[in-house]
Amino acid sequence: MLTPVPQDLRIALARYADARIEDARRSTDATARAVEDATYTLCVMTGTREIAQALRVADTLLGVHPEDVPAGRAHPGPQQDDSLQTA
């Protein structure tokens, strides 16, 4: 896997967050596609197959440590992948 440029990774994380927020606000076919596209992009960039894993890898690549994540913003587990991570 090639290591993504931090700025590109931050942009991909922001697009994922924006897509998730918009889909949660008003879910449509277009917003669902945007979430799928953003998820796919993050998975490809991080060499993973699941969004929870992609978010953890992105955090690691950006130097975010679990103790730096505010309370209530835990990393999603395999059963829960709806937390938004910030870069």
UniProtKB/TrEMBL annotation:
Q: Where is this region: Disordered?
A: 66-87
InterPro entries listed in its UniProt record = DUF5133 (IPR033457)
Please report the name of this protein according to its UniProt entry.
Answer: DUF5133 domain-containing protein
